[in-house]
Amino acid sequence: MTNLQPSAITTLLENASTKSPREALAIEALHNLQYQHRWTDLKLFTVLSPTSSSNTSTPTSSPSRTRPRGRSQSPAQSVVYLISGLPPRHLYIHPDMQKWLIRNNVTDEDVDVQREWVLPLSLGERWSLRQFCWVFDGLPEREVLRLSKDGSVDTEDEADFEWKDSKRALLGMLAHNGMGGDGTIAYYIMQEGEVKPRQNG
């Protein structure tokens, strides 16, 4: 009989010595982004909520060094984990920017990918609009894209088109086996403000 080896994610979680389900969920989402979706330059951040004793964020390169302190409380009163990284391609292109790209025969591969933010959540968690607003308030502003007809440019004088997206985050929704799910992570884009509908044709 062959000895079965633990999976990579099981080994990662065991080596990280996680103390909370939220921390384990964040590590699992980071692993999923890196190995299944081919994201690069991934970083895990711990952010203490406004009701905690300290209101700071600590970027960490190793999930094993990320340890929440204090008792486990509601999402608004505990440590929130955020992941940032670079996806292999654009996750969302605004219809106005898409129209300019098509009219000028510029492909989305010619435009640099911007850093995205992921909020790992369990399917059973309940978050209020106020909690999501607090997360969005802490996200950095998105960069202004200055484009020429042959792709990205650095200087304003050479740009034929400028665009700045509103803040957005991906909700990494995870359904664990114990909660009736299969462990799949589904990502949903949550964007600040109104989203213009796309036009066909």
SSE blueprint:
Layout: H1 8-16, H2 21-35, E1 40-48, E2 57-60, E3 79-86, H3 95-103, E4 116-122, H4 129-138, E5 144-148, E6 151-152, E7 161-164, E8 168-174, E9 185-191
Parallel strand pairs: 4-8
Antiparallel strand pairs: 1-2, 1-3, 3-4, 5-6, 5-7, 8-9
How would you portray this structure in words?
The chain has one domain. By secondary structure, the protein is of the alpha+beta class. Helix content is 21%, strand content 26%. The protein has 4 helices and 9 strands; from the N terminus they run H-H-E-E-E-H-E-H-E-E-E-E-E. The relative contact order is 0.15. The model is unreliable at 52-76 (pLDDT under 50). A hairpin with an 8-residue loop joins strand 1 and strand 2. It starts with 7 loop residues before the first helix and ends in a 10-residue tail after the last strand. Pfam families: Sen15. This is tRNA-splicing endonuclease subunit Sen15 domain-containing protein.
